[in-house]
């Protein structure tokens, strides 16, 4: 089974959805380590409680992004990691690092890409008045939130929504599609092929619109 590193910066609810899914004996990947760039990330305690090894690589200890990414890459090598999942990991990665992990690193983003790249996606979706919002799992490339899309889920935007209520509806779907997408990538059914995702066979996608 491929060994997966989950990279976090905070709460770690998506990390937990991956850990819980991977606990099933038939899951085609193993969560080998959780790495946080923030020593105070709440997700660290949750990973430890689930008996997953954790590491802290504090970005403040490095002069630049290249230094941080080199330490991250060294840790991934030590842990014999095959695949990387960014799960609320709030650091930009250098082009060299994304190139090295090309096709082996995925991210979850709380919007229907290519709409609403970057931060504050729920506030911006409400401000734009979109009627459908959602989340995306994609391969990570050098450009932030741009890599080829593996899976998406959509949710309605309701009249009474606040960023918090909309975000909670989206988060519920993040927890569905991230494990599903990791499963596809881990068993090789979804692969990066140039600037597209190649899928071997038609895959049924979880709740397209809920
Ligand atoms: C999630 O909503 C994730 O999609 C988002 O941060 C949240 C992390 O929550 N990621 C980004 O915005 C990436 N730029 P979690 O720590 O509970 O998984």
From TrEMBL:
Site (Raises pKa of active site His): 145
Source organism (scientific name): Starkeya nomas
A GO-annotated cellular component: cytosol
Name of the molecule in the record: Phosphoribosylglycinamide formyltransferase
Enzymatic reactions: N(1)-(5-phospho-beta-D-ribosyl)glycinamide + (6R)-10-formyltetrahydrofolate = N(2)-formyl-N(1)-(5-phospho-beta-D-ribosyl)glycinamide + (6S)-5,6,7,8-tetrahydrofolate + H(+)
Record keywords, A-Z: Purine biosynthesis, Transferase
Function text: Catalyzes the transfer of a formyl group from 10-formyltetrahydrofolate to 5-phospho-ribosyl-glycinamide (GAR), producing 5-phospho-ribosyl-N-formylglycinamide (FGAR) and tetrahydrofolate.
GO BP terms in the entry: 'de novo' IMP biosynthetic process
Domain Formyl transferase N-terminal: 3-182
Positions annotated to bind (6R)-10-formyltetrahydrofolate: 65, 90-93, 107
Enzyme class (EC, first level): transferase
Active site positions, chain numbering: 109
Record HAMAP family: PurN (MF_01930)
NCBIfam families: PurN
Sites where the protein binds N(1)-(5-phospho-beta-D-ribosyl)glycinamide: 12-14
EC number: 2.1.2.2
Family that this chain belongs to: Belongs to the GART family.
Annotated pathway: Purine metabolism; IMP biosynthesis via de novo pathway; N(2)-formyl-N(1)-(5-phospho-D-ribosyl)glycinamide from N(1)-(5-phospho-D-ribosyl)glycinamide (10-formyl THF route): step 1/1
GO molecular function, one term: phosphoribosylglycinamide formyltransferase activity
CDD domains named in the record: FMT_core_GART
Pfam families attached to this UniProt entry: Formyl_trans_N
UniProt xrefs under InterPro entries: Formyl_transf_N, Formyl_transf_N_sf, GART, GART_AS
């Amino acid at each position: 089974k491929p060994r997966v590193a989950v990279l976090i910066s905070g709460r770690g609810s998506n990390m937990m959805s991956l850990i819980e899914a991977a606990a099933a004996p038939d899951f085609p990947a193993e969560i080998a380590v959780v790495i946080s760039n923030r020593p105070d990330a709440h997700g660290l305690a949750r990973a430890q409680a689930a008996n997953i090894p954790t590491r802290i690589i504090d970005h403040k200890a490095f002069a630049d992004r290249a230094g941080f990414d080199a330490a991250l890459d060294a840790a991934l090598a030590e842990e014999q990691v095959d695949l990387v999942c960014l799960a609320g990991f709030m650091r930009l990665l250098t082009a060299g690092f994304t190139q090295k992990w090309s096709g082996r690193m995925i991210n979850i983003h709380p919007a229907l890409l290519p709409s609403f790249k970057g931060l504050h996606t729920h506030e911006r979706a409400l401000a734009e008045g979109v009627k459908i919002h959602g989340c995306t799992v994609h391969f990570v490339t050098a450009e932030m939130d741009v890599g080829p899309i593996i899976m998406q889920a959509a949710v309605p935007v309701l009249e009474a929504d606040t960023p918090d209520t909309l975000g909670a509806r989206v988060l519920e779907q993040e927890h569905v599609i991230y494990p599903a997408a990791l499963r596809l990538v881990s068993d090789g059914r979804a692969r990066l092929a140039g600037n597209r995702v190649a899928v071997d066979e038609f895959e049924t996608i979880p709740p397209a619109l809920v």
